[in-house]
Amino acid sequence: MLTLQNFITPEREICTEHMLYYHADGAVGYSQSTESYLLPRGSRICFGTYFNLFNLGKWNASCDLTSLFAELSGSGKTEIKIIQAHPNRSWDVVYSEIAELQDGTPFQIDLSEFSGKGNDGLLYLEVIALGDEVTLTGGRFATADQPAAWPRLAVSITTFKREDDVRRTVARLEDFLKTFEHGDQLHVQVVDNGKSAEIPASDKVTPYPNSNLGGAGGFARGLLEAEKGGFTHCLFMDDDASFHMENLARTYIFLALAKDPNTAVSGAMINNTHKWAMWENGAYFDGSCHPLQNGTDLRELKQVARMEFETTRPQSKTLYGGWWFFAFPIKSVSHHPFPFFVRGDDISFSLANDFKIVTISGVVSFQDDFTEKESAQTLYLDLRNHLMHHLVFERLNRSAIGTAKIAIRFMMRSMLRFKYESAEAQLLAWHDVMKGPEFFDENIDMSERRARIKSLVKDEAWREIDVLDARERRRFSKMPRRLRHYFGLFTLNGHLIPFWNMLGDRKVLKIGDRGLVLPAFGGARLTYINTQRDKGYVVTQSKVRFFSLAWRMFTTLLAFRRSYSALQAAYRKGYDEMTTQSYWQQTLSDDMAAVDAGKENTVRTA
User: Fold this and answer.
1) How confident is the model at residue 535 (pLDDT cuts 50, 70, 90)?
2) In this predicted model, what pLDDT tens digit does every residue of 421-452 receive, in sequence order?
3) Where are the beta strands (DSSP E) in 172-219?
4) DSSP code of 184?
C-alpha cells in the first residue's frame, strides 16, 4: 500500500495552531510527546482541516489513481464517518460505521469508488468515541497503485551565512530520510554561498561551496549538480526548512504518480506572525505579484474548502511557485534561472518553463513577514524584476507607458509614505533596467549596487526604539476611511498643502501598515515600529525631495519610452542567452572545478 498523505499533528517547532490540524467537540486531549489523541466517551474529532483533508479533485486530475483507501490507527470503540465536501452543493456522508479499533492493526476503509477522473471534492474523517476511552495514534490516505517509475529527487538548499539554520535543516532532513520508505531516491544538496556552513558530506548530503551570486546563483548551481547527478526532479527550498517533513513525502508521491511529466509542486506560504492565515497558496504575476487565497482563515473548514475548490480549477497562465518550496521535473527545464541575484528569479523560472504547477493541501512553508523584510534594497530588486518580466515575456507584453506605470506606481507608493530613500533606490532600479540585460551579467554579485543602496539609507534604517520620538498627534487620521483615501490622493498626502509639516499628523504605525499607503495618509511624520516593538524609524514629509524625485521620474519616463522597443528586443535575446545551462557552467566554472578537484584528491588519498 502506497501512502498518499499521512495525518499531520501539531509540531512545536513548526506550528501549534491546533485548529489547522483537527477540530474537537468535547474534552479531546492531544499528547505532543506521543502525537496521539485521547477521546472520552461522546467526544468527537474532525480531520477536515488544511493539513489533513484529501483533495480528490487535485489527486484525480493530476494522478492515475485506480484505488483509494483511508486508514485509522488506535484503540477503542468508535463511529467513523467520511464526509465528501462538494463545491456549490450539499456535502455527503459517504461512509458511517461502528468500528472497534485495535492497537497494531490499522482500520482500513475502501474508497476506490472515489478514485479516477471525474471524482472531485474533498474527503475528510470524523471520529466519535463510543467507548469509555478512545486513542487515535495516526491515519493516512493510501492507494494500491504503483508508479511506472520512481523519481530521483535532488533537494537543493541555498544558504548564505545562516549556519545554525542550515545545520538544523540538514539534520532534520537526514533524520526524515532514514525513516521515509522512499528515502533512497532523495538526496540533499547544500549550496553554500557563504562557504561557512561546514556541512559534512554523507550518503544523503553533499555540500557545494559556491561564490555568492545570490539565490539565483545558488539555485542555478543546485540545478546544474542535479542534472549532472542524473536526478529526474529537483526541489528548491529554503535553508531553515520551516515546514513539516510530510511536505516532502506528499510532494514526492504526487510527482511519482503524476500523469503529466511537466507537473511541478509549489508549496504554499504562511506568515509566522499569524500562523492561522494563508499568505500565499500560489501566486500569479501581472504588473505585480498577486498572492492567491491571501488571508484565508485556516481554522475555518468552510474557508479551507473554498480555497481548495478554487485552487483545483484551472489557474492563471502566469502562475508561479516561490522557491521556499518548489519541486519540478528537470526534463521540463528549457531556461535555467536568470541572474537576478535575488527577488524575481522564481517568478521568471516558472514563466519561462512549461511547468504544470499544482499546490497540495498541507504542503506549506512558514516564513517571516515579508513586510518586515521590506527595505530600500528589496524594493530596488522588486522593481527591477517587475519591469524585466514585462520586457521579456510575450504573454506580459505591454506598451512602453503600460510598463512604465509599474515603476511610477512603485515610486509613488514610497514617496507618499515619505520613504524617499526607497524611491531613490527604485529610480536607480529603473535606470539599471534601461542599461540592458548585460547590466545583470556585469553586476551578477550585486556587490557595488548593494553598497550604493546601503549608502542611500539613513532615515529608513532601523534603530533602537528608545531613541525615537514616538509621540502621536492625530487629527486628519480621524477622518472616515473613504474621505481620508481621497484626501491623501488629491493632496499627494499633503505634498500639495503649504506648511503640512506643521498641520499634518504624527503617527506611530505597526509593521503590518508598513507596506500600505492608506495608513500613512493624513500624516506628516510617520514612526514605524517592528513586530517586537523594540526598533523603529521615523520619516518626515519633504516637498523638496518629493518634487525632485517626481521630476527625475518624469525625465526617466521620456527616455524609457524612446528606447522601449530596442530594450524589449535586447532583453528577449539576452534572457535566452543568460538562462542556458552553458551560461551557468561558465559562470560557476571555478566553483565546480574546485569541487571536482576535491573529489579527485579524496579518491587518490583513499
Assistant:
1) confident
2) 999 999 999 999 999 999 999 999 999 999 99
3) 186-192, 205-209
4) G
Which residue blocks in 262-363 are alpha helix, DSSP H? Answer: 301-312, 345-352
Contacts 24+ apart (CB under 8 A), 587-596: 587/213, 587/217, 587/220, 587/339, 587/444, 588/210, 588/211, 588/213, 588/217, 588/220, 588/221, 588/224, 590/211, 591/208, 591/209, 591/210, 591/211, 591/221, 592/221, 592/224, 594/209, 595/208, 595/209
pLDDT of 237 strictly over 50: yes
Is the separation of the CB atoms in 73 and 375 below 8 Å?
no
- Backbone angles phi and psi of 205, in degrees to 5: -135, 135
This prediction's pTM: 0.93
Greatest alpha-carbon span in the chain: 79
Rounded to an integer, the average pLDDT of 76-86 is: 97
How far is residue 11's CA from residue 275's CA, in Å, rounded to a whole number?
12
Q: In terms of Cα–Cα distance, which of 388, 312, 345 is closest to 568?
A: 388
Q: How far is residue 342's CA from residue 399's CA, in Å, rounded to a whole number?
A: 26
Dihedral (C-alpha) 274, 280, 286, 287: value to the nearest 10 degrees? 20
Q: Can you point out the beta strands (E) in 253-310? A: 263-266, 268-271, 278-280, 283-285, 289-291
Cα(204)–Cα(54) distance, integer angstroms? 30
Nearest C-alpha neighbor of 417 from the set 498, 335, 523: 523
What pLDDT does 601 receive?
Answer: 52
> Is residue 494 left, alpha or beta, with left meaning phi > 0 and alpha meaning psi from -120 to 50?
left
The percent of residues above 90 in pLDDT, for the chain, comes to: 87
Does residue 595 carry a pLDDT above 90?
no
CA 546 to chain centre: 34
The secondary structure of residue 22, as a DSSP letter, is: -
Q: State how far the Cα of 344 lies from the Cα of 100, in Å rounded to an integer.
A: 54
In this predicted model, what pLDDT tens digit does every residue of 374-391 receive, in sequence order?
Answer: 899 999 999 999 999 999
Q: Is the pLDDT of residue 604 over 70?
A: no
CA–CA dist 461, 539 (Å, integer): 10
Asked if 503 and 483 touch (Cβ cutoff 8 Å), the reply is: no
23: three-class secondary structure by DSSP: strand
- The angle that helices 420-433 and 543-578 make with each other, rounded to 10 degrees, is 30
CA-CA distances (angstroms) from residue 335 to 193, 201, 213, 320, 346?
22, 29, 18, 14, 12
Flag whether pLDDT at 606 surpasses 70: no
117 pLDDT band (50/70/90 cuts)? confident
State the amino acid at position 160 in one-letter form: F
Q: DSSP code of 121? A: S
Tell which residue, 242, 560, 229, 505, has the closest CA to residue 388: 560
Quote the pLDDT of residue 605: 42
Alpha-carbon distance 266 to 235, whole Å? 10
Query: Which CATH number describes the domain made up of 153-367?
Result: 3.90.550.60
Can you give the residue ranges of every domain in the chain? Answer: 2-143, 153-367, 373-549
Q: What is 2-143's CATH topology?
A: Jelly Rolls (2.60.120)
Name beta bridge partners: 289: 285
pLDDT level of residue 602 (50, 70, 90 thresholds): very low
